[in-house]
Amino acid sequence: MVSQYLFVFAQAHDEFRIPELLSAAELHKISITFPEEDLSKLDVSRPFMVLGLENEDDARTLAKRCILIKSVHEFYARGTTYEEVHQQTRDNLALWSRHIPDTSFKFKVEAYNHSIPQRRQKEIVESFGFMALLGKIEMKNPDIIFSCFEEYPDKRGTTRDKLEGDGKFLEAFFGRLIVEGTARKLVKTFDVKKRSYYGNTSMEAEISLLMANQTLAAPGKLVYDPFIGTGSMAYTTAYFGAYVYGSDIDGRQMRGKEKKPGIVRAAAQYGVSQRIMDLCTFDVTRNPWRCGELFDAIVTDPPYGVRAGAKRLGRKNETHRPSEEYICKRLSGALQLNEYYTR
Amino acid sequence: MVRLITHNLLACHAKGCTTNNFPLQLKDVTIELREAEFNPDFVSGFLSRLEWTALVNAAKELGDTSLPPELPDMVDDDLLKNLHHVLLEIHIDEGSMICPNCGHSYPISNGIPNMLLAEHEIG
C-alpha cells in the first residue's frame, strides 16, 4: 500500500533533487509515486515534496543514500492556512491515533525563507492541542517528533523588518519525523579542503557525491572515469562500494609529487584505496581497452574551459604534420620527455 | 598497482596494430601482493567479461598456477577465492608491457602504466 511521505530537501542544486531520488530508488528497487505523472512538470524549486512510498523503510533507505534529502516525515497535512492543516490532520487520525495514549513526543516548528519568532512557535504548537496527545512531552530523546513547516516566498534582495510578513506563508506542512538525511554529512567528509591530495580543478564534494549517486554505484560494480584528473569522482563513487578505474592523458595529475600516487593517498584517507582498481595514463580518444563490455557505468568531469582545457594526442591540423624522417630524428628526445611524464 | 584484471582489459592500440595485440606480455616486472576485500558477487559477475586464457597465462608468468586452464562450468567458492587473488591482489608496481605484435613497450612506473602513443603511432 502506498502512503504519503513529506520530503524536505536541502537548499542546493534543486535540479538534482529528482534525478538523485530516481537513481537511489532504481538502485534499491524502491517505487516512488510522484504527484505528477510527467516528471518534467514537477516544481522542483520548492524544498517540500509529498511523495508516495510503500513503507517507512524505503524512506530510511533513501535518506541514507540521497545527499539532498534533509529529512523525511510521515505526511499528515498541508494547507495555506492552519485551519486547513488542522482539518486534514483530524481527517488523518488513523495515521497518528496510535501515538495518543503513551508516546513521548515533541514538536518542531520551522520555516523556509523565514524565522518564526518563539512566541508564535509556541502558539503553533498549542494550536495542535486538539490532537489530545497523552504521552509525555520530552525535549530530549522523545519517542517521536512532530514537525511543522511553513514555506515563505523568497525575500532575498528586498529590505524588510526582521519579522515582516510573519505568518504570511505560502503553505504549511505537518507530519511526523521518520528520519533525518544521514548522507548529507558526507558533503563535509569529502570536503576538498580537508583532502590530502587535490588539484586546481578538483570537483566540489557535493556535486561529486550527486554524480556518484547517479552512477548507481554499489558494491561489486565497476565504474570508469576517463578524465580522472585528481580523482574527485573516484573517491565518492568508491565510497558507495564500487570499484573505480581511472585514466587521464596527463599522468602527473594522478601521481602528484610523492612516489605513491596522489589519488591512492587521498583514497586511503577515505578508506577506499582498495577500490581504486587501477590508474592508467592514456588519451581516451585513443584508448587501449580491448573490445567487450567492461564497465557498469562511466562517471566523469570532462575537460572544458581554460584551467583544464581538452588535450589530445596528435596535431589538430594534419597538413602541418612533419615528415617521418623528422619524427625519427626527434624520437630519442621524445622518449626522454616520455620518461619525464612517467617519472 | 597494475592488477591482473587491468592487464586483462588492455590491448595494444598503436597505429595499424589490430591483430595479435592482446594480451600484452609482461617484462621485468616487480610484483607486490596486497590483500583486498573479497567480494564474491563482483568476481563471479566479472567472469563473463574476462579473457580466460590470457588471465591464466599472465598468472602463470607471475608464478600463480591456481587457476585451471579451462574455465570450468561449475564455479565453486575455491575457484572464486583463487580468482579474487589473481585478479585483485597481485599488483605490478614496476616493469613494462610489450605488444606481442608490434613490440611497442608500455612502461609501468609506481603502478601506473603509460599507454600514451607517440605521434607517428596514432592515426
UniProtKB/TrEMBL annotation, chain A:
Single GO molecular function: methyltransferase activity
Keyword annotations: Methyltransferase, Transferase
Top-rank taxon: Eukaryota
Domain Ribosomal RNA large subunit methyltransferase K/L-like methyltransferase span(s) in chain numbering: 194-312
Segments forming domain tRNA (guanine(10)-N(2))-methyltransferase TRMT11 N-terminal: 4-157
Keyword Transferase: yes
A matching Pfam family: UPF0020
GO biological process: methylation
GO cellular component: cytoplasm; tRNA methyltransferase complex
PANTHER family named in the record: RNA METHYLASE-RELATED (PTHR13370), TRNA (GUANINE(10)-N2)-METHYLTRANSFERASE HOMOLOG (PTHR13370:SF3)
Protein name: Uncharacterized protein
TrEMBL record, chain B:
Organism of derivation: Hermanssonia centrifuga
BP terms from Gene Ontology: rRNA (guanine-N7)-methylation; tRNA methylation
Matching PANTHER family: MULTIFUNCTIONAL METHYLTRANSFERASE SUBUNIT TRM112-LIKE PROTEIN, UPF0315 PROTEIN-RELATED
Source domain of life: Eukaryota
Family statement drawn from the similarity comment of this UniProt entry: Belongs to the TRM112 family.
Protein name (record): Multifunctional methyltransferase subunit TRM112-like protein
Quaternary assembly: Interacts with TRM9.
InterPro entries reported for this sequence: Trm112 (IPR039127), Trm112-like (IPR005651)
GO molecular function terms noted in the UniProt entry: protein heterodimerization activity
